[in-house]
């Protein structure tokens, strides 16, 4: 069975910066972002401390996930905020809720 693919949005603690990515292992990717934040600071997520998950979508195909990621990256911040709010009204950090 193939792993599902995810597009996800992470933010920093104060929710001022958004990072959009795609992965087939969301827990591992979030761990990488957290490690980069604490140690490397070379990636965008690492520099801006974006490892708090606030939004995600699941896909069966990498092509569909990448297309959705590209679509979201073109959006203005206000539209991304509305998307997150519709999924996660309190902007809770969802890192621990994923299995």
TrEMBL record:
Record's signal peptide: none
Residue intervals of the GIY-YIG domain: 3-82
SMART domains: GIYc (SM00465)
InterPro entries (alphabetical): GIY-YIG_endonuc, GIY-YIG_endonuc_sf, UPF0213_domain
Homology family: Belongs to the UPF0213 family.
Protein name: GIY-YIG nuclease family protein
Species of the source: Flagellimonas pelagia
Upper taxonomic lineage: Bacteria, Pseudomonadati, Bacteroidota, Flavobacteriia, Flavobacteriales
């Amino acid at each position: 069975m193939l792993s599902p693919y995810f597009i996800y949005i992470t933010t920093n603690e104060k929710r001022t910066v958004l990072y959009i990515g795609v992965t087939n292992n969301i827990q591992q990717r979030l761990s990488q972002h957290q490690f980069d934040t604490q140690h490397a600071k070379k990636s965008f997520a690492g520099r801006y401390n974006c490892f708090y998950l606030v939004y995600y979508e699941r896909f069966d195909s990498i092509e569909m996930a990448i297309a959705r990621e590209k679509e979201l990256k073109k959006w203005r911040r206000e539209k991304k905020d509305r998307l997150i709010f519709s999924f996660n009204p309190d902007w809770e950090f969802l890192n621990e809720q994923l299995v």
